[in-house]
Amino acid sequence: MCKIKNRDLLRLINDELCDTSVNGTSVNGTSVFAHKTVVIYGTRRVGKTTLVQQLLAQNSNKTVKYFSCEDVETRMSIETTNTEALKSIFQGYDIVVIDEAQAADKIGLTLKIIHDFIPEVQLIVTGSSSFDLSNKIGEPLVGRAFYYKLYPFSLRELNYDYIKMRSIIDHILRFGLYPTVVEKTEEKAKKELLDLTNGYLYKDILAIEGIRHSKVLLNLLIALALQIGNEVSYNELANKLGISANTVIKYVDLLEKCFIIFELTAFSRNLRNEVGRKSKKIYFYDLGVRNAIINAFAPLEMRADVGALWENFCIVELIKKANNNQQFSNNYFWRTYEQQEVDFIEEYDGVLHAYEFKYSPKAKVKPPKLFLETYQSEFTVIHKDNWYEKLVK
C-alpha cells in the first residue's frame, strides 16, 4: 500500500488529539476529544489501518493498545458487556484502537461501557461500512462520538508538485486514487482494481441478511457506471434489471453507505421550470472502481466517456476537499426543463457556489444566467488547464 504521509484526515485527528485546550483554555490536560470516541468509516483497502498506524506512531509518547476485530481471538476477547472484564482489558492505556469494529458482536454496547466507565481511554474505532457500524454503534454512542469519512486519496494528499500531478492526471481518470493503486503501473493497477471489485468491495453488502442476489447487484452497478453524469430513473433501472423499484432504491442506498457510489439530487426552490428534487444523478467515489466494474481502462483518446469521467472526478475531489477540511455542505445539480443546467452546486451556510466541468479548456461554456441571477451564486468552470488551482490548492 502507498504510505503517503500527507493524509488530511490524519493531520486533522492528530492535531485534535495533541490539542490540550479549547479556545485557549486547558481541559484537564486532555485532548479536545476527551470523552468522545473517534469513528473512522471507509471502504476496504482505502487505508484505514495505515492511517491509524501512522496516527499511533505520531503519538508514541502515549500508551496505546491496538485491536483488530478481523482476528477471531481478539474479537472474542472484547465481545462482552461485563464492565469489570472490559476494565481489565482497557484500563491503563491512553489510546485504544479497535480496527474493523463492525466484525464484533454488540460492539456498540461495548464501546458505550468503555466510554462511560473508562473515560480516561481515548477510543479510535474504524469500520469498513457505515450502515453496518451505524446499526451496531449508532444508538449506544449518541452524543459520545465524532465521525469521519476516509475516502481514497485526494489530489492534495498526494503531495506532488504541479508538473508530476499533470503527468498522472489521465492515469487517475482511468485507475483512480485507491492507496493500493496509486503509483502502480497500468497493469498492476488494473489487476488491483479487478481484485478489489471482484471480492472485497461487495463483501459487506453481501453479508447483510437478505442480500443474496450478487448478480443483480453487479448488473445495477454496471448500469449506474454507464450513466454517470446523466439523470437516472429508478423505475427504468428496475424494468431493465427485472426487479422492483424499491429493490433498486434499497441497493443504491446500501452502495452509497458502503462509499461506492453517491447520489446528487436536483436543486429546486424558486422557479417553476426547475426539475424537481426527485431527479437524481449517481457518481462513483473512485473512478478506478467505476472503470473496473465495466472493464474500461482504455486510454482517454480512445474513449467516448471522457466528459463524464472529468465531471465525476471534479465532483469527488471537491467533496473530498470539503470533507478533509471539515467543511460540511449540501451538494446538488441543477436543471430546468429548457435544459439550462449546472453540473454541481455547493451550499455553505446558505451561500451557493456553482460549477461547470469541461475536460477541454477550449470548450464553450455559457454561464447559467437564470440560476446566477435568481440565487446570487458564484460560478466556476474547471477544465484541464486550471484544475490544479481549483482542486489542489
Could you characterize the architecture of this molecule?
This protein has helices spanning 8-18, 48-57, 72-78, 83-90, 107-117, 130-137, 155-158, 162-175, 186-206, 214-225, 234-241, 245-257, 287-293, 306-324, 369-375, 387-391; strands at 21-22, 25-26, 37-41, 64-68, 95-99, 122-127, 145-149, 231-232, 261-266, 280-284, 330-335, 341-348, 351-357, 378-382. By secondary structure, the chain is α/β, with parallel strands linked by helices. The chain folds into 2 domains: 8-149, 3-Layer(aba) Sandwich (Rossmann fold), CATH 3.40.50; 160-391, Winged helix-like DNA-binding domain superfamily/Winged helix DNA-binding domain (Arc Repressor Mutant, subunit A, Orthogonal Bundle), CATH 1.10.10. The chain has a 7-stranded mixed β-sheet, sandwiched between helices. Strands 4-5-6-3-7 form a 5-stranded parallel β-sheet, with helices on both faces. Helix 4 packs across helix 5 (107-117) and helix 9 crosses helix 13. The longest helix has 21 residues, at 186-206.
Question: What are the salient characteristics of this protein?
Answer:
7-stranded mixed beta sheet, Rossmann fold, 18% strand, 393 residues, Arc Repressor Mutant, subunit A, alpha/beta, 2 domains, 5-stranded parallel beta sheet
Q: SSE layout and pairings?
A:
Layout: H1 8-18, E1 21-22, E2 25-26, E3 37-41, H2 48-57, E4 64-68, H3 72-78, H4 83-90, E5 95-99, H5 107-117, E6 122-127, H6 130-137, E7 145-149, H7 155-158, H8 162-175, H9 186-206, H10 214-225, E8 231-232, H11 234-241, H12 245-257, E9 261-266, E10 280-284, H13 287-293, H14 306-324, E11 330-335, E12 341-348, E13 351-357, H15 369-375, E14 378-382, H16 387-391
Parallel strand pairs: 3-6, 3-7, 4-5, 5-6, 9-11, 13-14
Antiparallel strand pairs: 1-2, 8-10, 9-10, 11-12, 12-13
Helix pairs in contact: 1-2, 4-5, 8-13, 9-13, 11-12
